[in-house]
Amino acid sequence: MTNLTFWTANHVAALTDGDVSCTARIAVQDVIPICDELGIWDAWPIQHVDGHPYRLPEGREIWMALGAPRFDDPDDRHGHARIHLILREAQGWRHLGPAMPETFSPGSREWSGSAVVGDDGMTVTLYFTATGRRGEAIPSFEQRIFSAEATLDGVFGDPRLIDWRGLREIVERDPAHYMSTLQGPAIVGQIKAFRDPAFFRDPIGGSDYLFFAGSCASSQSSYNGVVGVAVADKAAPTGWSTISPVISADGLNNELERPHVIHRDGFYYLFWSTQKHVFDPAGPVGPTGLYGMVSEHLLKGWRPINGTGLVFANPPEAPAQAYSWLVLPDLSVTSFVDDWRVDGDRSFGGTFAPFVRLKLQGDNASLEG
Question: What CDD domains does the entry give (predicted)?
Fold first, then answer.
């Protein structure tokens, strides 16, 4: 079991203008679409078990990202999301098409996850969120966490994933700790969470974990986000056991999205993304940014990074320009371009934002450069 750590209003209230580290303003030349007809967001590389991206010949990397056609209202993309393959090469990013066959996924759409390549360099395990149910007449916000395997093919050309198999729901919701995703309002930003599984192999103990975004079952607040955990367990029916959350923002914030862990210099760092509009407006409200905690132990003893939890934010002149940050083991950080213009109607970038890099020193984190 875990020892629960609370991210509280007192932590966020301690933020001052001088404490907020901000990324650079995204410029027009930074917004390079992957392809004209597709907007992408929430991205992750196919990784080794240690978290480092798996590299093909010539240093190329295979990434996954959520993708959908471009809509007049960018929020409509969530109802059409599918996981896509994207090749990262010296010339930039190149779209390779949907990751899974059209009829394979059990949801009406697919949301975020992570992917790990096996020791054979060919078997890829995808952990992902199936949202809704295939064939449902009205898309729901039900979220279930699945895994599936595929074989990596074409590594010397355009790689693809073939022979998809082994689809199974692996993280069972424990109602004592995690609220049903059918309980929340069907409104983006207010829905409840049971999603975003991020794989982590503990280099100390050797066990495998999935960290995910959840909602507190016993909460009396509409703002009840938690970071949940499942641990690999061969004795469990699905091969994974769901354990109690490690981080709670109950009464503060509704969504601790895409939580993930890296281990560096003897410390565990747990990061998540959240947005200004999902904080409880009655309390202190933090900026849209990357947040996190640090500990010497994986399942207990977490402390807010920088004393507040905030690692960095978007610049105040473009407070929603990027989102969904993912910290890689080399401390490079990816995200996607969200609402990057502030001089008119909402402008959804729908592509990779420029990478940034972190500096970590004990409980403190900052942007490099």
Answer: GH68
**CB count, 10 Å around CB of 164?**
17
Residue 39 CA: distances (Å) to CA of 45, 319, 321, 336, 351: 17, 20, 15, 10, 6
d(Cα 96, Cα 34) in Å, to the nearest integer? 10
Q: What 8-state DSSP symbol labels residue 239?
A: S
* CA dist 354 → 38, 163, 281, 332, 333 (Å): 18, 34, 30, 10, 9
pTM of this prediction? 0.97
Which residue intervals of the chain are DSSP H helices? 9-13
Return the closest-CA partner of residue 323 out of 90, 39, 91, 46.
Answer: 39
Distances (CA, A) of 331 to 12, 17, 204: 24, 24, 20
CA distance 345 to 322: 16
Average pLDDT rounded to a whole number, residues 223-227: 98
Q: What is the pLDDT of residues 51-95, one digit of tens each?
A: 999 999 999 999 999 999 998 888 889 989 999 999 999 999 999
Retrieve residue 301's tokens: 């003893």
CATH superfamily of 5-367: Glycosyl hydrolase domain; family 43 (2.115.10.20)
Pick the closest to residue 225 from 203, 268, 193 (CA basis).
Answer: 193
List, as residue ranges, the binding site: 41, 112
Nearest CA-CA partner of 247 in 299, 196, 198:
299
Higher pLDDT, residue 323 or 344: 323
Residue 344: predicted pLDDT: 66
Tell me if 221 sits within 8 A of 251, measured CB to CB: yes
At 341, is the pLDDT very low, low, confident or very high (cuts 50, 70, 90)?
Answer: confident
Across all residues in the chain, what is the average pLDDT?
95
What gap in Å lies between CA 61 and CA 42, rounded to an integer? Answer: 16
Neighbours of 19 (CB within 10 A): 12
Predicted pLDDT at 185: 83
DSSP output for 33-81: -SBTTEEEEEEEEEE-TTSPBPB-GGG-EEEEEEEEE--SSGGGGGGS-
Cβ density class 338-357: b for 16+ within 10 Å, e for less = bbbbeeeeebbbbbbbbebe
Binding region for substrate: 41, 112
